[in-house]
Structure formats: C-alpha cells, structure tokens
Amino acid sequence: MSRPEAPVTLDKAEPKPPASTGRALCNRYTTADMTVFTRDEASRFCPRGSGDPRQDPALAWELLYRLEPRLYDRLASAERLHPGVVSWLPRDVDQIVEVGAGTGRLTMELIERGRLVVAVEPALPLRRILREKIAAAGYLERARLVPGYFDELPLPDDFATLVVSCSSLTPSPGHGGEAGLSEMERVCRPGGCVAIIWPNHLEWLAAHGYRYRSFPGAMFVEFGSHHDAVELADIFYPQAAAEIRRHGWRRIPFEVLGLNPPRDVAFKVLAR
User: Which of 2, 28, 150, 159 is deepest in the core (most CB within 10 A)?
Assistant: First the structure.
C-alpha cells in the first residue's frame, strides 16, 4: 500500500453535523413495520424490546434500509464524495475492508484500488443492491459481501491494509462507538490505514489518535432531475424542500441542505 500523504492536524472547528431528518422519514413507518427486523437486529435496535420509529429517527433509518432500500440508494447516489477524498485513498492495496458499505457509495471506488474488497453491511436488502452493482461492473471476483456489525467484524486480526468506513461510524454504541473503532483497528495490519470518511465527530476521533484532512471546493447533491430532487427533499431534507421547488434545482449546494459536505477524512496509520 502506498502510504497516505502527510497528515494535517485536526481543525479546531467541528464540521456541522447532518441536519435532522425531522418528521418526514419517521412518519413513513410505524411499530408494525418493525417485524422486518431479524431477532439479532431487533435486539440491537430495540434493546428494551420496544421502540417507535415515529419518535426515533435512528430507528426510522434502520427501517428505511430494510423496507425501502432503493429509496435510500437514490439518496446515497446523489450525495457524491469529493473526488479529492477518493484520490487520497491508497492504491495497489492487497486487501481492503469497508464497514457499513450500504449500497456502494464508496465500494465501487475501492474495488479499483485493491485486489480484494470485503464489504461488511448488516442490512440484507442493501447488500443485495450492492451485489447487483458489483455484478453489473464485472467485479464479483474482486469483492466479497458479508453481514456484520461494527462491534463484531467477521474477520481475523491484521486482515487488511486499508480499513475504511463512510458516513457510518459515530461515538454511539449503536453505530460503532468505542467497540466499533477498536474492531476496525483490530482487523487492520500494522502499518496499514484506518480511514473514516465524512466524519462528524472529529474531537472524539482525535482523542483516539486520528488525523484530519479536508479538500476544498464547492460541493453539491446531484439528483437525476428536479422531480427527484423535490421528491427526496420532501423526505430527507424537508427544511430545504420549499427552496428547491422555488429554484427548480436538481443540483443543490450541501449548505442549503444544512449538511457538512463529504469532503473530509479522519485517519490513523497503525504503528508497525
């Protein structure tokens, strides 16, 4: 693996976290929809045996992944990563692990950079969409899709030279937390790199020895049409939907949506 370029020290300003989804997504689901969860998923997402997606946005997102995965894929496909982040990732890597792969926002880029990519994704419907994309690109021999969670990665110690997650890891135990960060480092080889793309908790990562890099330039969420932009904004960016309608946009600045653009990465090169 070619080593990442010289690190930049952590900025003092914390990037603005994603705006709240509000009621639009939460109101799509009810407690009756929670039967879609497997027993293991239910124990993780509803540890006390109950929950209401109308009151819990995190639970609503988990239901989205399983009930309407193609709706989620339309959103993720429009929220494109900064090309500088993708170019920064090391090339000529033997084995790469991506945790929380989703429908492949980053996965397809990783396949170009390594001999084998293991994409870990807990939601079966998202894995199915990702498999379709990988098969269509003719890359099935270079990618392996496996179920798994941040805190229990189904991989041995020192497995990969690059371990990466995009817009998934947070300090919350339900979305990685301390255990998830430790697991990512466990499966990374000495001298390898653990990279968190589009992070929103830089101080937490800095406390664990992670450096920070951000890439400049205007960034946009790019939908296929104005109709798509309006439809998805009503669900995911309700605070910006009226402005999107008024301007007839299909290409929307991240700032209008109240989102920190996906232009940055927090990373650690593990000691040899």
Answer: 150
Backbone angles phi, psi at 75, to 5 degrees: -70, -50
Residue 186 identity (one-letter amino acid): R
Would strands 251-253 and 114-120 be described as parallel, antiparallel, or unpaired?
unpaired
Pick the CATH number of 78-217+260-269 from 3.30.70.20, 2.60.40.10, 3.30.1490.20, 3.40.50.150: 3.40.50.150
Question: What pTM does this model have?
Answer: 0.90
For the chain, domain boundaries: 78-217+260-269
Tell me 175's DSSP state.
Answer: G
Has residue 229 got a pLDDT over 90? yes
Q: What are phi and psi of 145, to 5 degrees?
A: -105, 130
Q: Which of 55, 27, 68, 61 is nearest to 41 (CA)?
A: 61
Mean pLDDT of the chain: 91
Per the CB < 8 A criterion, the answer to whether 155 and 118 are in contact is: yes
| Digit-coded pLDDT (tens) for 146-171 | 999 999 999 999 999 999 999 999 99
